[in-house]
Structures
1.
Amino acid sequence: MKPNILILTLDAFRRDRTSLHGYSKPTTPNLERLVERAVVCENASALSSWTQPSLLTAFTSSRPFDCGGFDDGVKGRRSLFDELASWGYKTIGISTTPWVTGFFGYKFQIEERHFSLNALLGCYTAQMSSYLERWHCGKVDADETFKTLKPIMSRLSLAVSRFMRARGDRNYLASLVDQILHAHMRDFYNRGPDYLREHLANRPVPKSHEWLGAKWKWARSPLWLAREAAKRLSDSVVGLISPSAAILRRYRNKRFMDGSALASRIIAHAASADEPWCIWAHFHDTHYPYLAGAGPRWYRDSRYYIARTGGTARPENVFDEPGLARSELYDAAMLYTDEQIGRVVRAVGDRAIIAIAADHGEELGDHGDWGHHFRLYEHNVAVPMMFAGPGVRKTRVAGLTTLLDFAPTIAEMCGAKPDFMWRGLPVTHSDIAKRDHVILETVYGGTCDLRIRPPYVAVRTKDSKFLWKEHRDAKDRFVCRGDELYRLDSDPGEHTNWKNASPYGLPPKMYWYLDKIRDRLREVPEFSKDRLLDAFPAQEAAQ
């Protein structure tokens, strides 16, 4: 009989902040208990530093820049869930993010969507931002921008219509959204560049509530408007009395689905689904603003979890005081997520394959920033990854692994043959120990159209990391500058750039790193010979 499969992905879950990997605070006790029957990867890396390309990597075992980039999701790729369905599994996706849904090509036999309409709008407006930025800077004219945005707007229109229909909305709001969206689309196609000038001029990064969502937000029923006015008035009064209380009221509702509610949905599906089943779910509680507990009184739970991890910060201070408050609340959110994982693991029992991984890490002031802003430092890409299941012995994998290996490992544990297009290997494969490097890659956000966006690539070995950045100069040419080289064995926090600190000039291995990056970018069609020559003059000349 085929084993059931439980796949849990964790948002912004930093490996070095887990007690599973040696952190001093007890942030992951349930994961530690699972270790006794699990394969744990000690050196796992995400290939990118944000959710969309990272989950695509995990579920298709392909690189972010493959198949024209990740804007269109699984287009041109074979996902793990397609494979599992062909192996006779009932696939269930409980999605708290639009990136892993049918909107981006993923196919589940049962798909639950626990995200807002604004979150879906944000996925498409983010893709548009890079093209609008070039238009605002005078790099292209409105006509060319219109032609570029046309397919994105078409996909947006279809996605919103499907989203509202799938929710089964037949109320006033559903009809209002449909009317406003169709009016926008008619205006867009009929007026073309004039539409852009009216609605999107001087907005390099259009936000959904400032653009499409503005009209249906305020064109609701009089009763809804009255309630909204009363809520805003009460928030203003509270703000005059107590600024801290006002902040808590502003964040009374979580931006993402609460971990406890998500765990309950997983358990319900596991109890009722026909076997064999595969359930995937994505926990968001460790994403900023790190709210450990359910709203609207999440801060009470957060205080409890902060105390359990040995912290003293007040959770409400996370919104106006970075530093200690955010760091301790992040640890609390990790413990809260770990508890929900423990609930789910106990419910599914010992007969299921359990695969757990984070999509990326999180920067907590380590390099002067907070969040995961498209950088490839270790705190952004070093992730926990583990696999448990029937007959699995306690194993620690010291070799270099990545999210490319996530899907092949699950396939092997099911006794199935991995898809021939997959680039990764099962983490227990003998070749894992022979890997001398892995290549990480991302872009700075927005679209993954490498014709206009410069990439950010890194080569990681067991004891070092080389980071390479492409930029645009004043003449809108792609050039490379700002290389960084770190010795992870002696500088795990990546604070001393060895390239600049070495008294003997460039380390001899520098050209080895550059060759690896050049060879990878040669596989990407958007990189012409001239572009490669500008980026790697010495290597291309020697070729």
2.
Amino acid sequence: MQSRPAGDRRRRIIYNNDGDDLAIVAYRNSEGSETKISSEHPYPHRYQSVDEFLGKRMKGKIDGTQVDSIFYCGFAGEPNWEFPSKNLSALGPDPLKHVVDYAHENGMEFVYSLRMNDIHHAVHTGSYRWSPFRRKNLHLLQGNVDGKWFDRKVWPWARGLTGLYPEYEHPLAEVLENEGHLLVPGAARSDRSFPLTHPMPSDFRAWAAYDYAHTEVQDYILQVVERACERYDLDGIEFDWGNTPVFKAGVERRNAPVMTDFVCRVRQYLNARGQERGRPILLATRVPASPVQSLAAGLDAETWIREGWVDILVAGFGNEPFSFPLADWVRVGHESGVQVYGCINNDGLFGSKPEATRATASRYWSEGVDGIYLYNHFYEDTHVHGDSKQQFLPEYIGPVLPQDTLHDIGDPDRLERQDKLYRVDVYGPSPQLPLAFANRGGPTPARLRLEIADQPEKAARVTVQTKWKSRVDSRRATWRLNGESLSNPRPIVPDGDGEGWIEFETNALNNGVNTFEVTVQPPNKGTPPGPLVLQQLQVSITYS
């Protein structure tokens, strides 16, 4: 059965909900969840009604906007139907069915999303993050986890029993240098080795992630897919590969055929299930930023597309929106009639600035995407804490993106004359920033590139804004944009982002690729030693 006709449906914005609006309440002080979720957390101890649940992130927030699809994460370690039911009793026997009904009643698709290797349990406390299947099958993880070590070190830590601040007392902190962190203080980004019984995977967090080379892991995920299709009137399944590697380090490319066979199995099941119910079930997938990176991770998505197994492809994980080669995925997808969507991740540097979100969407549309995919963007109510009202605590989901962006980023024509904020990416395999200049010797020129999707000549004002690690004498750094000098610098403090910002007005910005050249003069006598670090460069385009 070909599912492509349904895959051709127009989707202006796909809204990914990470499922915490169910999971947090379900596990809050529930039996079997030893870690008590903070009393300051804005979610209730239990839901009192369906409207209260839907109103947290969806009802009255995304309906009536350009959102055409809800991709709801029902699996991030264990399926939603295995959540404790005590705090969700007001929602009936299966709370997620209300999301399905809400989506369809408002003309939106419902797609059941699986995070294929979510690793919150590797770096955050909470016994509920360790699903029964994962605890019983430690041999299926990438870290060669020893059971006795797990019982002695990891499980007490996960349960919050290791000390006053268990989140800071990671069981691997003793073998990792404290030279930075990845979600957990003390967990290093470096390639430091684990103990011999726990070899370091390609990603620090992957020690606790599934190794998809094991047939048992594949079978388990397929069972989750089958159960989801049996329980819900869904329109599709999403495989979200955006968390950690799926194979052990060094064998990813070699194992790509293993994953291809697995995706084929899933497609065959979805086809059969779709025939039974008389309506196709789509398969969507979120993959790394380019076909080359995807294949290197063991995900041969090009083959999946050519074989007709995938209906929707979400390109990239959203952390390098202005530099990753989006056009490569657009070409691959469109050659086979597959829709391609550009991912905007709220966890990136921009946070929730609407101008940055609009700039990202404009860049994606200019590359030929079929729509926009929002990841970790939530539209929360104000919540009452004691006698005061405040927005959702940023440490839980990040800043809240203004809802009005849901009315424009799905339409390139509406975006055309709206204010934008473009920025040189600081993430990705080859980030241009930060950039360190030697503080001794002669002038040191450097070049940076930034692609602009707007027509700057139509704007009322264009400024180039640079941020240095600390205050810097603006005369030491001279700038040229597309060969023209930038003059009259002035210090600014945009959006409370601290000191170190310098701004230039300019008429030299072009549509397309722009080249910035910066030359740093030697320091004056008495300047503190050490490099001068350029942290950020962004372009503000204002039409109003």
3.
Amino acid sequence: MYKFKKYVFLALSFMLILSIVLTGCVNIPSDGTNAPTGSQTDATTKAPVKEPPVKLKMFFGDAGIAFPAEIDKSDNPFLNIIEKAANVDLEIIQPPYADFQTQFNLMMASGELPDIIHCWFKADIDKYGSEGAFINWNEYIPKSQQLSQFYSKDMLDMMKTADDAVYALNVLSSMDPNGTYARIDLIDELNNGVMPKTPDDWYQLMKKLKIAYPDSTPMSTQGGVMMADYFFRGFGMGIDGNGIKMQILADSPDRYIWGFEAPKAREAVEFHRKLYAEDLLDKTFVTNTGTEFANAVEQKMTLLSWGGAAAVISRQDRLASIGNTTAVVGFVNNPIASGVNPLDCYQAFSPLGWHCVAISSKSSNIDAAVKVIEAFTTPEVKEGIAWGREGIEYVTNAEGKRILDTEASALANYRVAYCFFNAYWYPDNLNVRAAQLYPKLAGPQATAFRKAYEEGVAIRDAESGMVPMVSDASFVPSNPDLAPKIAEARAASLNIILKAIIGEISMEEYDKQVSDFIGKYKYITEEYTVALQKVIDERN
């Protein structure tokens, strides 16, 4: 029995030794406490091996948003947010804004391209892409869960070239749709807080303003009708600073017309003609520069304008900076004339911004470059760049509200510049800009602006949703042969409109010139209608 127990003991001992050999040595701590086995140690103490960051170069256009001189563009806390997310080391190549196109052309001519190119010339990217300079995103988007979710099929279709490729990914512009904004304090003062709804409502309010403040300029604009198309759209007429637009009416969604052909286009021109004659429209609106327009808005009590939330915040900031402690700016309902289909008062806007990004086909690190683009689209990166660093640019109070250090946050301009890929003024950044503004305002003014801004953004967002973000019209291909003729037509149309508004021609002459215009340029809208119908048929 003793020998049997001895053999059993030896066998168990051998098995134990064998198990130790197979699983790793036992670590015996110096303090004599029990220690985990080697396998346990590996699982709990060994950190996963992290690959070193991939070095990449990025050609970057700042669109005129100047970086502070003391900032190292290739090594700073905000760029590091992107680098950490994508595990890369980015070298930023940033030519001066005024010299960007020249440097871009020289770079393309050399054939020595950085890994990532960001610019605002999609046509150039597409041209060189068709020659093999850039990757076709059609190959990479399906492999990226992040980018596949970020970009819809409709968006990608809008980016395609004639050869069905996507060489440039556009930024997104839909984060801050435009709307009509106005002086809320003047509406409260002169209209008992009743919000005007129609162009005529606004006309009556402008007359009240002119009586109360004879030196005021109730309506102003720049370069003709730029920044003033809200009234034209209110009559269902498509127009911008370059002239008449080609448009689609809600009641006839399968064909294009020139804005002149909208049912109430003539009334829109007559309305502005009346404002001009009664000194309610700035007499110098045709020749106003941006600076002169801003001066009219700030110094002459101009009632309303058009733009995004960034424009509202900037206008409020500017009014406060010149000592106006009562002015309150906010979005209002877009004017809609009686009998006009509201859907015709809102232009369907493209979600694609004019900035774009491409990746060199010769890059030795294409996958890493794609990860950079993915990083730009993530909420974490966008939020981190917009707000900055907790404890430096902002602190969080007991209620969970972020309180900005306004001095530290003054460098928001270059934080914004790194957010090119989603849009310059996405919501987080707008929230930062609003938070920077509040401490500059007088107490009652700050309270009133906060209320007007929040309520106004809700109005703007609701109204922008009245039309699809992406409409059939968005997919009509541009015919390069028609481009110069379209530019010619729009310039001619603007001349007709301006002459009619200032009274240089009668409305009878206006009718004749419009008729001649339609007869001369009808073929353009007809060609676009054919293209539109093809798109509609394909979708059905």
4.
Amino acid sequence: MIKSVNGATFRRMVLSGSKTLSANKDYVDSLNVFPVPDGDTGTNMSMTIASAAREVSECSTNSMASLCAAFSKGALKGARGNSGVITSQIVKGITDVLSAKEEFTAKDFANALAKGTEVAYKAVTKPKEGTILSVVRAMSEAATSMNKRNVDFSNFLVKVIEAGEEMLKKTPEMLPVLKKAGVVDAGGRGLLILFQGFNAVFSDDEDVTLTFDDAASPEADAKYSEEAHFDYNDLAEIQFAYCTEFFIVNLYKKTTEADIDRFREMLMQIGDCVLVIGDLSMVKVHVHSNQPGEVLTAALKLGELDSLKIENMLQQNRKLIGKKKVELKPYGIVSVCAGEGISGIFKDLMCDSIIEGGQTMNPSADDIAKACDKVNAKDIFVFPNNKNIILAAEQAKALSNRKLHIIPSRSVPQGLAALLAFDPDGTVASNEKAMTEAMDTVKSGAVTYAVRSTEIDNLKLNEGDIIGMDAHTIVSKGDSVSEVAKQLVEKLVDDDSSCISLYFGNNVTEEEANAIAAELSEEYPDCDVDCHFGGQPLYYYLVSVE
């Protein structure tokens, strides 16, 4: 019977979870609601946890605090897409609790899972049920309700997973889009696979092969939530000079957990990259701030300081660049693009840096932060150009040494429209307003193919069907790329439209694209029709109507 888990076993759990999730990421990808070839929930979650696993594997000690810090840091740095960001928040909550333990029991893990659920829900402005949030909540509730005296940890974990499985089966009842697509929530499945990987270390064969029965219940008929998206709180975006790191030990008897919470909140007001982990026995503190003295003064009210380290990051930078003075320009532009042609268009519009990604490969928060740090500008506008990248871009604010301003472009056409509205002589606020408003003037669409048979909004699709999508759903299908493209344009054009732009992918010839453009010019004589090489993979056309 395994009553507790030490640091060495916890390390194996993390590595096993990452390995198991990686082995099953394609299956999780297949559960994405829309049957398009860029389904990436499994890929995003796998890469998020892989980043965490690398940090854990490189950790030189089996100290639970060190391993938890590495696990949390790696998940944050590697977080990709909506699912990856939420997963990183679950990890953060779990490690916040376990970091204070030398070994943890089933009861400790139940408390940690409750904290992970709390942190994940708080990260979402409008939490939506029927998602990974529902699954982790069900797992947490099951863990908390169990009698955990003298319980075998592996049996405990099996029951927690079973509770998650039960909730996962209900997700199509909670979200109509899942029910119509005939799938369960992809993020919830990914989380359960991660936990199955955790539990594999307690079996005789860690290379466990997983099987799934994720068919949605055909008789599911519950009340559905009306909200259709996640909103996330903004993260800090101020540039700070001093990296301050220390332990608070021998905490005063009068110090409470509430005092530590207030200390953490204070640090968030005066700095970024804030890490306050521990309990009343010891607290690990890390913060970037311009007032290290204020940080230390506040910490001294809680206890004694140990292993104090303050580094001047400005001086570190000066050493790197030598005596050469670099004057930052006011503004920089960073854009996420997929396709040679589209990247070239953004560069022509004075984009400073292009991050490869979009359809098949979402950049992580760390990728975005590193790209921004290389731009010689004080304030940097970031164009995600994909709804699944916006959250990672927001998280990059906490990792970058620059001031990042995220323009939440959900498509390439929106990003181009926003960039055209950029005024180099304007203020940050006026540019953010103008570029955001410019996005609203554009209707975006795309033409691709279905990778599986399903039904979306009463539209039956067969594998291989050519499909046209607007910003919300699939609006057309057929056997011909050109015909579907024309049907899509018809759905997007209205009486106020004046310009139609086509960006053709790397599987469309210029002659084919020009032929469609000519037909559209005849069909819509009041609109200017432009045709550009995009070079994007998987999508025959990206369409913009203004």
